[in-house]
UniProtKB/TrEMBL annotation:
Protein keywords: Cell membrane, Hydrolase, Membrane, Transmembrane, Transmembrane helix
Subcellular localization: Cell membrane
Top-level taxonomy: Bacteria, Bacillati, Bacillota, Tissierellia, Tissierellales
Residue stretches making up the Phosphatidic acid phosphatase type 2/haloperoxidase domain: 60-168
Annotated membrane topology: Multi-pass membrane protein
Any one Pfam family match given in the protein's UniProt record, by short name: PAP2
Record's protein name: Phosphatase PAP2 family protein
Natural source organism: Aedoeadaptatus acetigenes
Length: 179
């Protein structure tokens, strides 16, 4: 079956990975992408549960709960769909020495970034633009670094927003009532 999104992916992968390339973006995106990685988010989650709850209350617990759920959803989809990463398929991409062994669809970093951004935007709407811009930069970084196709990133955006919203609107309060 032919991929109906191939032209979209090819167009934006070329524009983001090749045409935007410069030494400043190389440095920025290579380092910035890690704010949505498992290491940083693991530390942030522990910090939020231990210390953050005093400052921001239930937003801390809700963020961690939403992250766990969105990560599970993303990992299940990665295993079911088993999409190759762009640099496994195309040899002329700027790869920055990154060599990941898992699959591409959806972007886990983007899923996590938009899960956190959605959760905090719902609690702190005056800061929503900042949270969304931060998550958007993570999303761009994943294609810039050639570890994800643009459609992988879009799927991560959708999953992150939906899970963040559903946990905020339905899951968290019902879980507290159940406990």
């Amino acid at each position: 079956m032919k991929n109906p999104f191939k032209a979209f992916d090819d167009y934006f992968l070329d524009r983001i990975n090749k045409k935007l390339k410069n030494k400043y973006f190389d440095f920025f995106f290579y380092n910035y992408t890690n704010i949505a990685g498992p290491g940083f988010l693991g530390i942030l989650s522990v910090f939020m549960l231990v210390i953050g709850k005093r400052w921001i209350g239930s937003a801390a617990v809700e963020m961690v709960l939403a992250l766990v759920i969105s990560t599970i959803v993303a990992q299940i989809l990665k295993r079911i769909i088993s999409r190759s990463r762009p640099y496994w398929v195309s040899k002329n991409l700027n790869t920055y020495g990154i060599d990941l062994r898992d699959y591409s669809f959806p972007s886990g970093h983007t899923t996590a970034a938009f899960t956190v951004a959605t959760t905090f935007s719902l609690y702190y709407p005056k800061m929503a633009a900042l949270f969304i811009v931060m998550a958007f930069l993570v999303a761009v970084s994943r294609t810039y670094l050639a570890v994800h196709y643009p459609t992988d990133v879009l799927a991560g955006v959708i999953i992150g927003i939906i899970v963040g919203y559903v946990v905020h609107m339905y899951v968290y309060d019902n879980l507290l009532n159940w406990l």
